[in-house]
Design a protein that fits this description.
With 307 residues, the protein is of the alpha/beta class. The protein folds into two domains: 2-101 and 275-297, NAD(P)-binding Rossmann-like Domain (Rossmann fold, 3-Layer(aba) Sandwich), CATH 3.40.50; 103-267, Rossmann fold (3-Layer(aba) Sandwich). 37% of the residues lie in helices and 17% in strands. The protein has helices spanning 13-25, 39-45, 61-66, 85-90, 103-118, 142-154, 167-171, 181-187, 207-210, 230-239, 254-260, 277-297; strands at residues 2-7, 29-34, 51-54, 72-75, 94-97, 134-138, 157-161, 176-177, 190-193, 218-221, 244-247, 265-267. The strands form two sheets. A seven-stranded parallel β-sheet has the order 8-7-6-9-10-11-12, with helices on both faces. The radius of gyration is 20 Å and the shape is elongated. The protein starts with a strand and ends in a 10-residue tail after the last helix. The protein binds 3-phosphoglyceric acid. Residues 9, 55-56, 77-79, 102, 271, 273-275 line the site of 3-phosphoglyceric acid. It comes from Bacteroides muris (ex Afrizal et al. 2022). Residues 123-250 form the D-isomer specific 2-hydroxyacid dehydrogenase NAD-binding domain.
């Protein structure tokens, strides 16, 4: 059995070593394709792979067509919007993710972006503190929970909205559950986004919603760029000079944001929320174990596509 690790954005070496150990202990072969850049290299590498571990790498119908021996794809991470699930099902390929494995890393980066924004991008002028500010967590999944845990240490007042998470689950963490996204944005000084990119959420963070934020509002995005309606956010930030936007996922309109909103907009150059040795080890080794469990025992825990 051949297990391909196809990561355009590579894992830390220590994580690759751990993945290799798991795969070889099961008697399988590990093949590494890193920083491949062009899709053609991925198409070539998947030809004889039985299993693939990816990050944000795109697995579409073309890749699945090329991967004649493929049985399983594991997205080492949370969001699997980069995999065409229906095509995978049609190709009889099982798709899994590794929920929770990189969530602390992403949550910590959200705070890195928050501190940078409230300290005026470290430009030497007098900024503000997070203590006592109202934080809104938009979606209370694994990352959202970690954000809440860290926010307590900062002394923030914490609110959350999640259409799919029961109020009691949120409130047992000492977080105030609000009834709608609108209420969350009108209440909070800082909103941290943790929604996945789905048909329902794409473009949903729009003018009307963000405009509900109080004066000086800060929007932090460590989720997906697709959830932001970029044209509307640009229009709103033009009209409201008090708003700030910090993101770990470079917008399509990055040049426009950077040119128009210097001092109140920042994007990391490459999505790096999950880019820590710890997160790479957790997610990468979980992915390797899930592959071994699937190939040896047919275990489908964490499967995300239909059969
Ligand atoms: C995830 O969905 O797990 C995060 O967005 C991390 O993505 P990455 O593995 O591409 O850094």
């Amino acid at each position: 059995m051949k297990v391909l690790v196809a990561t355009d954005k590579p894992f830390a070496k220590v994580a690759v070593d751990g993945i290799r150990k798991e795969i070889e202990a099961a008697g399988y072969e590990l093949v590494l394709l890193e920083k491949y850049g062009e899709k053609a290299k991925l198409l070539e590498a998947v030809k004889d792979a039985n299993a693939v571990i990816i990050r944000s790498d795109i697995i579409d119908a073309e890749v699945l067509d090329a991967a004649k021996e493929l049985k399983i794809v594991v997205r080492a991470g949370a969001g699997y919007d980069n995999v065409e699930l229906e095509a995978a099902t049609a190709h009889n390929v099982c798709v899994m993710n590794t929920p929770g494995q990189n969530s602390n890393a992403v949550a910590e980066l959200a705070f890195g972006l928050m501190v940078m924004a409230v300290r005026n991008m470290y430009n030497g002028t007098s900024g503000m503190e997070l203590m006592g500010k109202k934080l809104g967590i938009h979606a209370y999944g694994n990352v959202g929970r970690n954000v809440a845990r860290i926010a307590k240490g900062f002394g923030m007042e914490i609110y959350a909205f999640d259409a799919f998470c029961p109020k009691e689950v949120i409130e047992k963490d000492g977080v105030k559950a609000v009834g709608s996204a609108e209420e969350l944005y009108s209440t909070c000084d800082v909103v941290s986004l943790h929604i996945p990119a789905t048909v329902e959420t794409k473009n949903s963070i729009n003018y009307a919603l963000v405009n509900k934020m109080p004066k000086g509002g800060l929007l932090v995005n460590t989720a997906r760029k697709e959830v932001i309606n970029e044209a509307e956010l640009i229009q709103l930030m033009e009209e409201r000079a008090d708003l700030k936007y910090m993101t770990d996922i470079m917008p399509a309109a990055h040049e426009t944001f950077a040119a128009k909103f210097a001092g109140r907009y920042f994007s990391t150059p490459k999505k790096m929320g999950a880019q820590t040795a710890e997160a790479n080890i957790n997610a990468g080794i979980a992915a390797a174990k899930q592959i071994v469990g699937f190939l040896k025992d047919g275990c489908e825990k964490f499967r995300v596509n239909k059969k």
